[in-house]
Each structure stands twice: as C-alpha cells, then as structure tokens.
Design goal:
The protein has 308 residues and is α/β, with parallel strands linked by helices. Helix content is 51%, strand content 12%. The longest helix has 15 residues, at 50-64.
C-alpha cells in the first residue's frame, strides 16, 4: 500500500468534518464575517485545532470575505493555507555508528508500538538495529518490546523490571558499539510532562549515555497521540522546554476527526514532524510528507461531496 493511500484513508474523518462545516458558508450567498466566526467555532469543535481553525478562517477572511464562492474555491484557499502552515522535515541522516534515538511520550500514545515499527522500517532499509527496553516500570512494556524486536529481527537489551533505566540505556549503547549496530532505539517510561521526578529520570538517562559519547542521543523524538487535540500542543511545549526535541511522531490518526491537529502542531511548534501513524500495521507508520498530507486532507473532497 502506498503512503498516499494510507494517509488518505487515515484522514477520511477529518476531510468529512471539514466538508460538513463548509456547507454552512458555501451556496449561502456572500461570505460574511458572522459565517466565518461560526465556521471557526465549528472547526475548533471538530478538533481541527484552535490554532489551525484561526489560521484557516483568517485565510478565508482575507481571500473570501464578501464573495460568493464555490466549495472548490473555498477548499483551494484552505489548501494553500495548509501548505503554508506545514513543512517537510529535514532528511533523516545517521550521525554516528550507532545513531542513538531516545523515544519519549506519555503512556498510551503508542510509543512502544512506534519503536517496533521504526525498527522494522530501518531493518528493511538494511540497517542493523538495537532496541533498548528503557521502560523498566512495566513488565508488560518489556515483553511487548521484546516481541517487536523478535518480529523485526532487531537486537534487544533489557534488564529486570524495576531496574535503573539509565543503566539499560548505557548497556544498550555499549552493546550496539560492540555489535556494529547502525541505530539504537531507546524506549522510556511513559511520563506526564508535569511529573518532575520522571522528567529528572529522563535527564539522568541523557547524562549517562553522554558518557559513551557527548553527541548521544543524536535524536530525541516525542510520540504524541493525534487524538488529544489541543492538549497535545501544551504537552509538547513543556517537553520541548525540558528537552530540545528533534522530531515528533504523531500516532493514531486513523479513524479520527482530529487529523487537523497536525496543522496546529506544525504551526504552533517549530519541531519537525518525522512520522505519522495511520493504523496498527507496520506499513501504517509513514514518513511525514507535507504534499501527501495536504492531498490527504483536501483531495477527493469534492468527489466525496458529490457522492453524498
């Protein structure tokens, strides 16, 4: 399945939510400020995201106010604005052997599954990958990650449940060097951004692996649930203040009307979106591509409307 079809499938609900909200302003004569305020309110309720809702309706205010426009013309204005809000991430390059990626996120965001999918992807590209089970608080997390490592044929380093995550990370980096691995993916305990002791533990992991090499970790990726809407942005800002994030992985965008949150995240945070998760299957974690995402959001919208 191509990336574009995965993205289009995942964004169906968002696309339909946008279309149904547009019906209030298309074909109702000249577009007024009141119509746009209503649209703004409905887009926020549809969880397109507060920031994105403001920016999309501002674009319409600038280009459509006082005009009678077709759905196609209105979608064209919104599409242009969406393209402006999004940016492609810089190319992913290995910066060391091994290239160390620390993966963080709150519980339930899909962090462990994401690590498994990333390992599969890197291995399919011919890279040797080691996964470190740094979430030592939950035996289930270690078991789940080990299953992913076996499935993807990645090397695996774990300690006992309840052991020091920094020690696991240190040993993983040592093993990766000895085994000639290209990429190390370090899992961490799901943490809330407002729990100081958990944030301190993460700082310790970073300090300890820097003893191997001051450039570690080369990447710090935050996995966030695309369903959490505006909360996601607030969480991410707090994480980013504590740890300079180099990339975001946005998960669970399949079957949700909140796919527009990617617009908000991209416009509110200057952090590259690296990957988006559109489902449970390995192939449904896809590299973020601005053009494909915009097409997924707006493409076929008119033919969908005709079919309804």
């Amino acid at each position: 399945m191509g990336f574009l079809s995965v993205i289009k499938g995942g964004l169906t609900k968002t696309r339909n939510a946008l279309l149904s909200e547009l019906k209030g302003i298309v074909g109702a004569g000249k577009i007024t400020d009141e119509m746009l305020e209503n649209l703004e309110e409905h887009l926020i309720k549809a969880d397109v995201g507060v920031e994105a809702a403001f920016l999309l309706t501002d674009a319409l205010r600038e280009n459509a106010l006082g005009k009678s426009l077709s759905t196609e013309e209105v979608l064209g204005i919104m599409r242009t604005e969406a393209e402006r809000l999004l940016s492609d991430p810089p190319p992913f390059e290995l910066k060391g052997k091994p290239h160390v990626i620390l993966v963080i996120g709150v519980n339930g965001a899909g962090k462990t599954t994401t690590i498994g999918k990333l390992a599969s992807r890197f291995i399919s590209e011919g890279k040797k990958v080691l996964i470190a089970a740094g979430d030592t608080f939950r035996a289930a997390a270690i078991e789940q990650l080990e299953a992913w490592a076996e499935r993807s044929q990645a090397d695996f380093v774990k300690h006992q449940e309840g052991s020091d995550p920094a020690a696991v990370a240190y040993d993983a980096c040592e093993a990766a060097k000895a085994r000639g691995c290209d990429v190390v993916l370090i899992d961490t305990a799901g943490r809330l951004h407002n729990k100081d002791h958990l944030m301190e533990e993460l700082r310790k992991v970073v300090r300890v692996i820097k003893k191997h090499d001051p450039s570690y970790p080369h990447d710090l990726w935050l996995v966030i649930d695309g369903n959490t809407g505006q909360n996601t942005i607030n969480q991410t800002k707090v994480f980013h203040q504590s740890f300079p994030l180099t990339g975001l992985v946005i998960t669970k965008l399949d079957g949700t009307a909140k796919g527009g949150s990617v617009l908000s995240i991209s416009s509110a945070l200057q952090i590259p979106i690296r990957w988006i998760g559109m489902g449970e299957q390995i192939h449904q974690l896809v590299p973020f591509n601005k053009q494909e995402y915009v097409e997924g959001l707006f493409e076929n919208a008119l033919s969908n409307e005709d079919a309804n």
